[in-house]
Amino acid sequence: MTTRTTVHLLRHGEVHNPSGVLYGRLPNFHLSATGEQQAKEVAAFLADRDLVHVVASPLERAQQTAQPLVATHGVELATDERLIEAGNLFEGLRVSVGDGALRSPKHWSKLRNPFRPSWGEPYLRIAHRMLGAVHRARAAAEGHEAVCVSHQLPIWTIRLFLEGRRMWHDPRRRQCSLASLTSLVFDDEQLVRISYFEPVGSTDARVTGA
To answer: What CATH number should be reported for the domain holding residue 60?
Structure first.
């Protein structure tokens, strides 16, 4: 007999970011009114699931996204630092393609190696810390379901890693919309399936701060 456990990787909802900067790990970036509604809709989407464990990145937007889930299922919210957003040297700057910091020669040295990447936390390091957080959540929810609230790049990176794909990629092609669920299904400790859901619909990966 095997024990089936599902770990849902939930991306946080929309963030209030009127300046359109890359906020990364900066403090005081919270959900917008739309983001708060998205969090409620995800909680409603998962209301009938056998959810026994909810854990979130320490960043405010992830903690806020988790709140409707813990209220709906009557569980305590845990925090795992390994679910945090990726480190990035462009934090606080506008980085849309053809705009802001990317047009300035003083920043071009940061772009020298897109395969690592040279402007931020290495992809393999992201994948390894996320995998550790996932397996801790799997163990905590063994035989049931868990939700890990994290961020777009960490979620997309671990998905690429688990699917055996290259981790360097075009950010505009990530399949990880706001408040989306990337669900990992385990039989015992063996990953058997990865599924993707968009409970609140799709959003544009090219929008900085989304």
So the answer is: 3.40.50.1240
**Alpha-carbon separation of residue 50 from 43, 44, 174 (angstroms):** 12, 13, 28
Would residue 144 count as lying in a domain? yes
DSSP secondary structure letter of residue 194: E
- Tens-place pLDDT, residues 175-202: 999 999 999 999 999 999 999 999 999 8
Among residues 82, 10, 52, 70, the alpha carbon closest in space to that of 142 is found at 52
Domain assignment of residue 206, yes or no: no
Show the domain range for 39. Answer: 4-197
Please tell me the distance from the alpha carbon of residue 116 to that of residue 30, in angstroms, as a whole number.
29
Burial 111-123 (b: 16+ CB within 10 A, else e): eeeeeebebbbbb
Q: What is the pLDDT of residues 30-73, one digit of tens each?
A: 999 999 999 999 999 999 999 999 999 999 999 999 999 999 99
